[in-house]
Design a protein that fits this description.
This protein is α/β, with parallel strands linked by helices. The protein has 5 helices and 5 strands. The protein has one domain.
Length: 134
């Protein structure tokens, strides 16, 4: 682990060597909107977002929604990018899902495919404030 970034701090860049290489943790609240916005503010260009209930949220960077169960993936196909519940259902192996996720990441990161949030126009931000966040 290299260090901890404060909310809104940019992640160190690699410049001619090790630079910012390694694991950096980001100090941000657990609220999905606020923490995802913080990741993008620190330099994330693609987010992997796991969900068990489904959510239409998207953030300034492509946000790949990974469903933990097939029920949500079937009910909300326009929100979910990958159904990881297929492992529990026995309709996919861990190796298949790993390959599918890696392929999806490459397609979206290259610009050849859009994440569901981009297709639907969901691009919210939520800035951390003092006090309660609802």
């Amino acid at each position: 682990m290299r260090g901890i970034l404060r909310y809104g701090d940019p992640a160190p860049r690699r410049a001619g060597g090790a630079g910012g290489a390694g694991l950096w943790l980001l100090e941000a609240p657990g609220n999905e909107g606020v923490s995802s916005t913080a990741l993008v503010a620190s330099g994330a260009t693609l987010l992997l977002f796991t969900t068990g209930r489904g959510t239409p949220l998207g953030f300034p960077a492509p946000t790949l929604k990974i469903s933990s169960n097939t029920s949500i993936a079937e009910k909300k196909p326009h929100w979910i990018d990958l159904n990881a519940g297929a492992l529990l259902d026995g309709t996919a192996t861990l190796d298949q899902l790993e390959e599918d996720l890696f392929g999806l990441i490459l397609e979206v990161a290259s610009g050849r495919q859009q994440a569901s949030n981009e297709k639907q126009g969901y691009r919210e931000i939520a800035i951390w404030k003092e006090g309660v966040t609802l």
